[in-house]
Write a structure and sequence with these properties.
274 residues, alpha/beta, serine acetyltransferase, domain 1, UDP N-Acetylglucosamine Acyltransferase, domain 1, 2 domains, five-stranded parallel β-sheet, 10 helices
Length: 274
């Protein structure tokens, strides 16, 4: 057993670290033993643990945990990029969220991470033409996590959604790599059009809490959208926008705002002010 565990650690140091954190957590709080064993230590790999977690959360009287787990297991075997994205999302949360102190936390406790991985499963089903099953996943993610993402939306890797409450992302939305957003963000349309009608968020964008980005507009890479803003027009790269409707108020403030998570606006004083 020890030799097999060492071999697995060499193949997957991230999973080995998660398992080490799990063992330490049980030693510190034995009452968590059942949950942590079933969620982490009973599984040999991250994809198996993730399939278990998603199926446990999304199961209902209409769809059993066993069926959902078989779907997730088959998806991870067929498309390894799903787990690559999950690893990138884990790293993003660990790096950017000051409340995340261990890699095991998002897997067990953070609904933003769990909701995004469930969305990725639904998106894979959508790409396979299994639209009704994808819609079911979307429905359950919305009911369980309060995150409503259409399975046709395209989302890159390294996504961090802090708090992840009341997130809405529409059907034709595109979100790039290494994007960060906070709760109550909407990437929506502006009417009843049924064509390409949702925002395109480029890499490295930071979207503040409560921001609404509406319509088929483009938000340039490494830009910032201030909390509570309503964005109705294209945003150039590396700029900060704020207000209702949002206007450019300055530069992004750093090379990678989605990583730094700096949401303070550095306003230039007017003439005559100190």
């Amino acid at each position: 057993m020890a030799q097999r565990q060492r071999a697995l650690a060499e193949l997957d140091p991230v999973w080995d670290r998660i398992c080490g954190e799990a063992e330490a957590a049980i030693a510190a709080e034995p009452l968590m033993g059942g949950l942590i064993h079933s969620g982490i230590l009973h599984h040999r790999t991250l994809d198996r643990a993730l399939a278990y977690r998603i199926s446990l959360k999304l199961a209902s009287g209409e769809m059993s945990e066993q069926i959902l787990r078989e779907i997730a297991d088959s998806a991870y075997v067929a498309e390894p990029k799903l787990i690559e994205s999950a690893r990138a999302d884990l790293a993003a949360i660990f790096e950017r969220d000051p409340a995340c102190h261990r890699l095991m936390q998002p897997l067990l406790y953070f609904k933003g991470f769990q909701a995004i991985q469930a969305y990725r499963l639904g998106h894979w089903l959508w790409q396979q033409g299994r639209h009704d099953l994808a819609y079911f996943i979307q429905m359950r993610v919305s009911e369980v996590f309060g995150v409503d993402i259409h399975p046709a939306a395209r989302i890159g890797k390294g996504l961090m959604i802090d708090h992840a409450h009341s997130i809405v992302i529409g059907e034709t939305a595109v979100v790039g790599d290494n994007v960060s957003m906070l709760h109550s963000v909407t990437l929506g349309g502006t009417g009843k059009e049924d064509d390409d009608r949702h925002p395109k968020i480029e890499d490295g964008v930071l979207i503040g809490a409560g921001a609404k980005v509406l319509g088929n507009i483009r938000v340039g890479h490494c830009s910032r959208i201030a909390a509570g803003s309503v964005v109705l027009a294209d945003v150039p790269a590396c700029k900060t926008v704020a207000g209702v409707p949002a206007k450019i108020v300055g530069e992004a403030g750093c090379d990678q705002p989605a990583i730094s998570m700096d949401q303070l606006l550095q306003m230039t004083p007017r003439a005559g002010q100190d």
